[in-house]
Amino acid sequence: MSDTTDAPKKLYIKTYGCQMNVYDSERMAEALGSKGYTETQSPDDADMILLNTCHIREKAAEKVYSELGRYKDLKAEKPDLKIGVAGCVAQAEGQEIMRRQPMVDLVVGPQSYHRLPAMEDAVREGQKALDTDFPEDDKFDTLRKRAKTKRGPTAFLTVQEGCDKFCAFCVVPYTRGAEVSRPADRIIREAQELVESGVREITLLGQNVNAYHGHDGGLAGLIWALDKVDGLERIRFTTSHPNDMDDALIDAHGTCDKLMPYLHLPVQAGSDKILKAMNRKHTAEQYIRLIEKIRAARPDLLLSGDFIVGFPGETDADFEDTMSLIRDVHYGQAYSFKYSTRPGTPAAEKPQLPDDVMNDRLQKLQGLLREQQVVTQDSMVGREVSVLFEKPGREAGQMIGKSEYLHAVFAHAPADVIGQVRRVRITSASSNSLGGDLI
Ligand code: SAH
Ligand code: SF4
Ligand code: F3S
User: Fold this and answer.
1) pLDDT of residue 232
2) Residue in 88, 91, 169, 170 to alter for ligand 2 test, most ligand atoms within 8 A of Cβ
3) Alpha helix locations (H) across 115-183?
4) 9-131, what's its fold?
5) Average of per-residue pLDDT across 348-355
6) What tens digit of pLDDT does each residue of 324-345 get?
7) Which CATH class for the 263-379 domain?
8) Per-domain boundaries in the chain
9) 145-260 and 263-379: same fold?
10) According to DSSP H, which parts of 244-354 are helical?
11) Is the C-alpha dihedral spanning 416, 38, 139, 101 positive or negative?
12) 145-260 in CATH: which number?
């Protein structure tokens, strides 16, 4: 069937999990565009509902089943409605989803969604479609060029997928497969297409983005190549592993004007015993030395991190080591999680800590991280920052954007600042955002 004979249809995509899923959802919507689909914000209007799912913690994975439950009545009313599950839960539990939820028509993993148009044909004919392969063909070769529609000023661009690190708690190496880097010329072309659609800031994505090796000089080499793209004003990248922070990348933080002074560099824990059990392959001391080196290259860098409390075997003393690492490093912002047992990962075999111990530790850790975040936010008052304005704020005449340090910044400004980088003097701070005046 040719693209043009496909009747217009509506697609509702709900995205869970990390930024890579946000990027994949855009690409899946574009792929289904060839079958006549346009996106809708309401599941009630949809001809197809696609849940792009996350498997990282138990709670994230459970959401899929409760969300599917909500569509039962809708599916009974509209027998032509097709329901699909994509993403990391699809990869990990594809067969199981089909068995537990007969209303699911389609299951597609993160490496095979370029096959969605053919799968859509199958489900329209009343078949079930399941594809959780790690195909030899590169999905990015099959996917269409980025749609030429007008975009907002910021975009994600996946440059690297998968992970070979096998941290003992983590499902990503199983759901996303081995580490693969996209060729640099394709990435640069995609960045140019995004800029032509109005994008000014690109965040390079990878489960282990700084392990990127598709360009000489690794991720730093790619960043320098993107630095030459006219019209691209800002570059960010996430998420990084401490062991892949090479000197060239650290140096780029000091010398590349387009590379923003923000770094998400998870350490997970501050006890060497726990880091070893997690298979992180570095010590707390090595991490702290690394941060010193990065800050020497870019003193004003805002640092973010991820922490897990209650990993199997974590004692009070181990937890205190994490607290003390946080005090040493000082994070501008961070994410923290209770350890969640993931089937198939090595840590799942180990005896688990009681929930109340984990809750207590999480509360203490989050209290400390919150204090540091407030100190960081407050320290911005009186300073000047550069803000890329993205959209109107909630109050009339107010526009919202991001500082170079990724703070959300509000300012009274005309609507034409959207898409522009403007200097702003910060006049007020709350725990999650800053307020200021255009200079
Ligand atoms: N690739 C990134 C992060 C991937 S997952 C990295 O290496 O840093 C994002 C975060 O989820 C992790 O950094 C970790 O803090 C958390 N996470 C992963 N698996 C988890 C689990 N089983 N339980 C709790 N948190 C987990
Ligand atoms: Fe998971 Fe570790 Fe890989 Fe990050 S580096 S994706 S935490 S296995
Ligand atoms: Fe979740 Fe998969 Fe991302 S498990 S965090 S959606 S890589």
Assistant:
1) 98
2) 170
3) 116-124, 139-142, 172-175
4) Rossmann fold (3.40.50)
5) 96
6) 999 999 999 999 999 999 999 9
7) alpha beta
8) 9-131, 145-260, 263-379, 384-438
9) yes
10) 247-255, 272-277, 284-297, 316-329
11) positive
12) 3.30.750.210
Q: Is 57 in the pocket of ligand 2 (CB under 6 A)?
A: no
Torsion sign, CA atoms 330, 335, 336, 339: negative
Q: What is the mean pLDDT of residues 296-316?
A: 98
For residue 2, what pLDDT is reported? 42
Please tell me if the CB atom of residue 172 comes closer than 6 angstroms to any atom of ligand 2. Answer: yes
Pocket test for ligand 3, best of 19, 55, 132, 167 (most atoms within 8 A of CB): 55
Pocket around ligand 1 at a 6 A CB cut-off:
56-57, 169-170, 172, 207-208, 239, 241, 266, 268, 306, 308, 337, 339-340, 342
- In CATH, the architecture of 384-438 is Beta Barrel (2.40)
- pLDDT confidence of residue 5: 52
Crossing angle of the two packed helices 19-33 and 87-100, in degrees rounded to 10: 70
The model's pTM is 0.95
14 lines ligand 2 (CB under 6 A): no
Residue 431, φ and ψ in degrees, nearest 5: -70, -25
